[in-house]
Amino acid sequence: MKRFDPMCLAIPGKISALHENVGVPMAKVDFGGITREACLSYVPDARVGDYVLVHVGFAISKVDEEEAARTYQYLSEMDQLSELQDGEQDGDEAHEVP
Asked: Which strand (E) or helix (H) includes residue 71?
């Protein structure tokens, strides 16, 4: 029987703030109430309020709000968001999304 390794997925989130870290464009990204940092090098035109797909700390593409919500719902139904929630670090902000 062939063994399947777990797959890493990109998670949609909304950019809430922009900043630079030693010249690298960065953002605070809200994932349904959990905020994480993400590098914006692959999507330099991203702005506050945009939705992005984040994979291992890098925003890899922009998506519209509807696509972000649909993807987030699918990941939730497949129980693929536990790593995001379990990985909460000291100093990370958790807040309600309006």
From this structure: helix 65-77
The count of structural domains within the chain is 1
- 42-71 per-position pLDDT tens digit: 999 999 999 999 999 999 999 999 999 888
Residue 98 covered by a domain: no
Nearest in space to 36 (alpha carbons), one of 98, 80, 83, 75 = 83
Question: What is the reported pTM?
Answer: 0.74
CA 89 to CA 57: how far, in whole Å? 14
CATH code of the domain containing 58: 2.30.30.140
Q: What share of the chain is helix, strand, coil (3-state, %, to 5)?
A: 20, 40, 45
Q: Does residue 23 form part of some domain?
A: yes
Beta-bridge mates of residue 35 = 30
pLDDT tens track for 18-50: 999 999 999 999 988 889 999 999 999 999 999
